[in-house]
What we know:
Elements: H1 2-7, H2 10-24, E1 29-40, E2 53-64, E3 88-99, E4 108-112, H3 124-127, E5 132-136, E6 151-152, E7 164-171, E8 177-181, E9 207-210, E10 218-220, E11 225-226, E12 228-229, E13 238-239, E14 243-250, E15 255-263, H4 270-282, H5 287-290, H6 296-299, E16 305-311, H7 313-323, E17 338-342, E18 381-382, E19 389-390, H8 394-399, E20 404-410, H9 412-416, H10 421-424, E21 438-443, H11 468-484, E22 501-502, H12 506-509, E23 528-530, E24 535-536, E25 541-542, E26 549-551, E27 560-561, H13 576-579, E28 583-585, E29 607-609, H14 614-620, H15 627-631, H16 634-651, H17 656-669
Parallel strand pairs: 4-5, 4-16, 16-17, 17-20, 20-21
Antiparallel strand pairs: 1-2, 2-3, 3-5, 3-6, 7-15, 8-14, 9-10, 9-15, 11-14, 12-13, 18-19, 22-27, 23-26, 24-25, 28-29
Helix pairs in contact: 16-17
Amino acid sequence: xxKAFILFTGKGYMxxxxxxxxxxxxxxxxxxIEVTSTEPYKNGKVFGHAGSYQQIKGYAYGEIDPANPLNSxxxxxxxxxxxxxxLVEYVSEFIILCPTEKIKSNEVLFLSLPNRGNVFGAEExxxxxxxxxxxxxxxxxxLPGDGRLTMKVPVATANGKEISGWLRTEFSVxxxxxxxxxxxxxxxxxTHHSYETVSLDNKNLVLTKxxxxxxxxxxxxxxxxAFSDCDSLTFPGHASTTRISIKNGFDxxxxxxxxxxxxxxxxxxxxxxxxxxxxxxxxKDDKEKINPSFTSTIDSIAIKATIIQGVSQCSNFIRTFLxxxxxxxxxxxxxxxxxxxxxxxxxxxxxxxxxxxxGGGMQHEEHLFPVNLPPFTWDDRLDVISGTKGGIxxxxxxxxxxxxxxxxxxxxxxxxxRASLTxxxxxxxxxxPIPENVRIYLINGTExxxxxxxxxxxxxxxxxxxxxxxxxxxLVALEKWVIKGTLPPESTxxxxxxxxxxxxxxxxxxxxxxxxxxxxxxxxxxxLLDFGQNFSARGLSGELQEPPKVIKHKKYRVLVPKVDSDxxxxxxxxxxxxxxxxGTYTGWSLRRKGYxxxxxxxxxxxxxxxxxxxSERLAARDPRLSLEERYxxxxxxxxxxxxxxEDLVKAGxxxxxxxxxxxxxxxxxxxxxxxxxx
Length: 678
């Protein structure tokens, strides 16, 4: 320590001294746990050798020092109200699952981030392995209801006076709608807090509509819209500071845009601190000593390693959490040992004034939202398009707190979220080395959230190619990597080197001419954006100038996975549905007339089944071989599924128990006529 003092002088000495004082005094912490219920999970169901589980629900009360350098990057933290100790408070709702018999726990904490407050159910395969599951609220703008986990955060003020600012919001609907919340983006709906308008008078505001993102904006007469609620009354309805109505309703064919003056920004960046601090506390052996409010049940939970899982929006949360340095707690220790980041390739706008972390940044929806900004890569490098240098792991690399990371992608992320930039860099001209602590896997032929339905935006069937079997195998691989140091399978994703990463045009992409299926090679490639001098693009924090300045002459080169003669992708993990296909599975689809025709249809793909016989195929002029030509009969199909399952288990991309399920599913699902399953 004496050497450290010798090396630092002036401001450096003072910074070191302040850090020492903080490290020797109080840390940001969970100061109280309120348990609201404790009960057997699923009525005491037994999960393998781990036995039954106990479910604990409650609230975690936290406080942080806004002056600590590890907290000071939280937007508006110095403007939040403080308690008598000069600390900022928050409250997060949580759920814990732990084996009833603690000795049967594998002592690995698995924190699954709630998505817009919604809790994903615990994976049974992981419960059987004895995990301790934790869900903790992090999103302070989620409204209560339908079991959503919520977080209470303070409102920033200027010495007690209201803060106001300009917000830009977009509205898109899938069916005619009279009234929306001011926060009603495509992915937030009616379940998120809306920033109130400063005034109900709209005379100096402009509401516009357009069919496509780059179309000229058509002004809607101010007399034809209002800050109001028309759900139960005809227009203009009841005046409302948090809702908006249009005289003739919102039309699914249009993108609506409004810039208005809102007030009372929430200090949403506290969500990062909440996840850091509750996990840091759960890792301690003397939880009750540190926090007397802990019940003996929670205090007795032993944790030797931690893994965090984020899906979609929550995966983007994790990337931002790491980027801002929150994987180091205030004692300088690593928070998470492992990261499972699924279907997220960007960062999240949680840590900006008037933050809206539920926003999209898609090709059609919320295209100019402040989330598609560099860095995209995990390691620290120059982004030649923006001229900025950085990487998601740059800060944790400096403090030795980087976790082991498994990033899994569906096809949709290449079309809608520019996933190629994570492995090629901004100019898309060469494959980049991936850090040793990171694995990247594309699950070929999958959509963002697999489902089986007719998409109202396209008229086509969505893509139900499952991702969960692959994810389960990789989660087990991540556990072994974290606990035993056993390396997971090598990264498997499209590359320029092997020719599986290409431009999304018909010539390079090799899309087959499937009758009735529109294709135009459209990908989401947002321009570089300038949100003004009070905004930090590198830190994704500050105050947004709306609308942003669009820098059109600087373009990223976005690439997508090449497809085979069936239209199915190459270059990633080819699961059962792709190795032994019954049709074409895409991560993209195009909107139909009346819904922004020709644009990408949000996060949905398509399932386009093969014809059953050669004669049907020829009559339809379908270039793809029929089921009859591929497998002859159901026995041939089932044999192919068995072989593919064996190969995937051997490669580490399928668990044996899931292989058995896949074979049973194959016996039920082969669709050929007059082919009873034997």
